[in-house]
Amino acid sequence: MLFGKECRKIFHSLTYIIYCIIVILMLTTQYFSDCAEKEYRPVRGEYDYGETIIEDHDLVMSNATDDLTTEFLSNRYVCYPFGFYKAVQLNDKKKAKIEKYIFEITGLDSDGIAEKKNNSMLYNFTDGTHNYSEYEIDGMPISDTVTYERFKEIMSDIDDILGGGSDYAVDSLVFRFSRVPMTYEQAIEEYDEMMENDRISGAYARLFSDYAGFVLAIIPVFVAAALSAADRRHRTSELIYSRKTSSICIIFTRFAALVTTMFIPVLICMTAAFLQILSLYGTKDMDMTTMFTLPSFWLIPNIMTVSAVGMFVTELFSGGTAILVQFVWWFMSMMTAGAAGLIGRIEKFTFVCRHNSLYYRNEFIGNWDNFVFNRIFYIAVSLTAVVLTVFVYEFKRGGSFNGIRLFGKDSIFRHKA
Amino acid sequence: MVSGCLARIVYSDIKHNFLLHYLLALGILLASPVFFSLSELDSRLAAQPLEAYVPLIGIILMTPVFLPEQNESIYDVVCSKKISHDIICALRLICSVVIVLAMTGAFVLNMKYSSSQVNIRHYIGSAASALSLGAVGFVFAGVSRNVIIGYMASITYYILNFAIGTKLGNLYLFSMMHGSFAEKKWILLLAAILTASAFLLRKVIRIK
């Protein structure tokens, strides 16, 4: 059977063995070491309970306007496009646009802003080699005519003016500007959420998926690229091309074999994670299925997408190009996810979904619709990529196309005599 | 005579096999302002692009040294020639290392010109990270005779630095971001050992 043959081929490949080692190593050094101890109910007054995010529109508008005015007055906006620090300075035209928006939000004119500035303390900072001064603006008024919807539109424009990655991006507003210190009661509530609503395993399943998803957004490409390139490498392409089996059967079987085999070490780790939480908490309050269902729904689309895109780019170009494409995608996703915060901020097209905590269930559930859409979307993307791979493979089989080669004698960069 | 022959080999190799890699590495460095500021950074902020971004050129330039002869038919033809295949690969490696050092140097100078607090330590640290990432890819690609495994090893090493960070101890690539330079000598030593042992390991270990 073709599926069995493909699976055996993958099991015997060095890339697959390294893949298994990496998945197990990553989860052991991160998830299993982080979750080695049981979580206990918070004790009153013993420590700082951290922060919580509440969706308070007034608080968002007030804090964001204070920060915007502060940065406007020093003409220095700190942004993190792709997770790296970037200090943006605007030209006069763009500064005028920001000023116009501040007037609209606050209802103040330039004299009003100047008055606020004069009543504020001036602080000197050194950032890198650059010395600058910043007014500590606090308590900017918000005009009654500005609704939260209009405020979001303005913030979106401002984020565009700054080149993206600023705190004013609409998706960041609540996360950045609506944080309050967590009280003891809220800490207890978070703990109870984990014990009662998540029934323990839900919280651990999220953290497991977060750590595993980080790796599974890149590593499967190596196995997929190696398998797709293996025929050419072992000079068996022509032999396979001449067989009766259809291209659709070969490619879909190969894809199914890749996804199945690459899910096996993840499943083994899932089982180990389940046994670990069973040994910590016992079976009494535990949901016995979530540790398997949620990570499967979270991680299988990652494996599918990376494998399918890897197969497609390898067939079209080469294994190296597939790795480069996937690495760029992974790098940008990781940096963007890092800049957005690692707690439950899952959007419709976020490739690497992150929730790096056992707590903050409500933040995750608040994005549940996005999460479901997202995972189904990536399943669709992967199937589309597999169909495209079938077309490319069929063309190659027919002899009318031999892939786009960047190196070697068929290179597109080589001059033909 | 011999040097002329070697020069022709290097020229031909760069033209047919490595020009794209050099251009890609250059493209990566030129794209850096899209991702972060390079001007007016202090010592630690300057380490961010120099450790997390610039060293990627090591993977691009050093991992594919054995790629042109990865196909066994080509390898057999090359081995039948008078000049040893190892010498050709050593020449390619030297070219790649020189380009890594030159590109890193140009990047550091550009940052210095943009009023960032960078010095010779930043240059050595960034180059050491690039060379060690490249050396990991180089040795794995050489021993396995499969460049994909080389990329897999070097990218895994890179990911490990994000994932488990300082737990890597002396092999931590991003140490300058945390104000430490001591790890760099170990990283440089790792790069030297891996690079030097790759040719020997290729003869000893034969993975099919």
Q: What key phrases describe this protein's structure?
A:
heterodimer, A: 417 residues, mainly alpha, 2 domains, two-stranded antiparallel sheet, globular, B: mainly alpha, 0% strand
Question: Would you give an account of this structure?
Answer:
The complex is a heterodimer of chains A (417) and B (208). With 417 residues, chain A is mainly alpha-helical. Chain A has 2 domains: 251 residues, no CATH class; 130 residues, no CATH class. Chain A has 16 helices and 6 strands. Chain A is globular and about 80 Å long. The model of chain A has no long low-confidence stretch (mean pLDDT 88). By secondary structure, chain B is an all-alpha fold. Chain B has one domain. Chain B is 73% helix and 0% strand. Chain B contains 9 helices and no strands. The termini of chain B are far apart. The mean pLDDT of chain B is 89.
In short:
With 417 residues, chain A is mainly α.
| Low-pLDDT stretches of chain A | none
**Biggest β-sheet: strands ordered side by side in the sheet of chain A:** 1-6
Estimate the helix proportion of chain B, in percent.
over 70%
H/E series of chain A: HHEHEEHHEEHHEHHHHHHHHH
The total strand number of chain B stands at: 0
Q: What is the multimeric organization of the chains shown?
A: heterodimer
Mean pLDDT of chain A, rounded to whole units? 88
If helices are DSSP runs of H or I spanning 4 or more residues, what is the number of helices of chain B? 9
What is the terminal-to-terminal distance of chain A? Answer: 45 Å
